[in-house]
Amino acid sequence: MKLKLLYTCMAITGLAGTAFAQETVDQAAVQKIREEGLNHSQVMKTAFYLTDVSGPRLAGSPGLKRAQDWAVSQLKTWGMVNSKLEPWGKFGKGWEVQKNYAAITVPYYHAIIAIPKAWTPGTNGAIKGEVILVKADSVAELDKYKGKLAGKIVIFDTQNTLKRSAKPDLERYTDEQLAEMAAAKPQPAGQRRAFDQNSPQFVAMRKARAMRTAISQFLIDEKVGLILSQGRGTDGTTFTTNGASYADTAKAVAPELETSGEDFLRILRLVKAGQKVELEADIKTQFFTSDLQGYNVIAEIPGTDKKLKEQVVMIGGHLDSWHGATGATDNAAGSAVMMEAMRILKAIGYKPKRTIRIALWSSEEQGLFGSRGYVAAHFGDPKTMQLKPEQKTLDAYYNLDNGTGKIRGIYLQGDSAAGPIFQAWLAPFKDLGATTVTVSNTGGTDHQSFDAVGLPGFQFIQDAMDYGTRTHHSNQDTYDRLSEDDLKQAATIVASFVYNTSERQDMIPRKALPTPPPAAPGR
Ligand SMILES: [Zn+2]
To answer: What are the DSSP E strand ranges found in 260-415?
Structure first.
């Protein structure tokens, strides 16, 4: 007999009450999932293939394609069906680094830590040149450099210094912080912070952007050899920023190296002190234009219940990464956890009532393109709220994209009615530190694409670890930063959430359908 336990505890948290008490959890299934997920895990092996074996997984790059192909075949091997690459629309050019060498040679030799900026060209072979400090607060001031920068290596004065911090890099949520999140009040719907286009900061931002564009054009026209820019970060850690344009129509830009703070400021101090600095560099990058489409990895465990099998429970995370390292915590961690959750459910022989589908998105880093493309193709258009029939059968979507930290709970994205359900589903994992349900929203990742068309889309609460301080988009985001116990815990909890969602009599309750944003004036 299946062991069903009715939770009778009332009012553990403000969100409890009768709905929580009535939510049933299949304890026997939870035990099986825990046993498989905690004691027979393959999550680190999966993470190894997505990081060390595939390499950096920048959107459109060969590294992402290696990881996608491996994921499609691994999911097939584990018994998933319809495992495939599904196009989501036109992305643009692929790009990868094929050589990255740069060093100070005068006044002495020192190899520098630097990352070619994404979607920038190489130096077309080895170059050697003096480093020139370009000072210009207006386009007109650039004129004094006309004819003097060809083949040179240019640097700008960033006025930055490196700030040291005594705060530890790696942190976990405290009970107080989690209690505060659990007590958060629902945010009134549609409360978006209004941006005043004419506010001083906006005006300053626009001016700075225009100046950057003018400088970048000037440097191309002057045929500079290489631009050195200061990467964010300290202690040799360099965070990559958004690259040049990947559009197939994009204008050419100059080669650029995002340089570690320590190396950049040493060069800047020397040049500003009138010391001659020479650098040699050999940067080779490759653009790929044979296939401009973007693809998501999709696979399924088909539903078996006559009535419910048409309904779909989805899980996912983005597989693409930046190129400074191997995108381990962002987001091989989330991708490996989601693949592992599928493997666990298969390994325990689960025959789900509803169909279970995994999606490993691409181009999240450029703007949630993979998930938005998928949602537009399958569920509806957030701009018009024109919905498609599949929008009715998508039960819920669960996302993981906040690093390697273990699950501490879940964000309801304003869907309060789902609170007591998730509270009950977390209860069996209290011992693993997962307790918290907050009504708050969280942003910046793929569950938002579902939320935008009125579908229940959730991101789990995860311990921060050293995500913001060390790994997120940096040259330190390697397999070494992954925490095995945390990823095992996360995969186990995700697998149980999927199990419960698929087994539940009713679908996950939904918020009111969002109203489409007002059409832009003149459209
Ligand atoms: Zn991410």
So the answer is: 278-288, 293-301, 312-318, 355-361, 380-381, 386-387, 394-399, 407-411
